[in-house]
Amino acid sequence: MRRDIFQAIADPTRRAILALLAIHAMTPNALAEHFNTSRQAVSKHIQILAECEAVTQKQSGREIYYHVNANKMKEVDQWLDTFRKIWEDRFDQLDDLLKDL
């Protein structure tokens, strides 16, 4: 099943995994230590992130390390950019209104 990045980041646990991996690459066991859930549950979340290419994996000896795929996260940033412009325009309008007061 092919998932998109928005399905992946809809879950708070997956967002937390991405935040941890943004700091540095981690193994599934290292990731699981940060959650009150089983390693299998964390592995399922990692699998979903991998299916949408939000994370990549690299083998190092017997361990698999997961990394954030920053290029894939650009899709989220591009989608949010429309809203960012709306928010900036509204803040500018608020600034103008406050200056007038």
From TrEMBL:
HTH arsR-type domain: from which residue to which, for each copy? 1-88
Checking SUPFAM superfamilies in the record gives: Winged helix' DNA-binding domain
InterPro entries in the record, alphabetically?
ArsR-like_HTH, HTH_ArsR_DNA-bd_dom, WH-like_DNA-bd_sf, WH_DNA-bd_sf
Region forming the signal peptide: 1-32
Q: Known Gene3D superfamilies for this protein?
A: Winged helix-like DNA-binding domain superfamily/Winged helix DNA-binding domain (1.10.10.10)
Taxonomic superkingdom:
Bacteria
Matches recorded under SMART domains: HTH_ARSR
Q: Which Pfam families match?
A: HTH_20
Q: Which UniProt keywords apply?
A: Signal
Q: Which NCBIfam families match?
A: HTH_metalloreg (NF033788)
- Protein name per the record: ArsR/SmtB family transcription factor
What species is this protein from?
A: Mucilaginibacter ximonensis
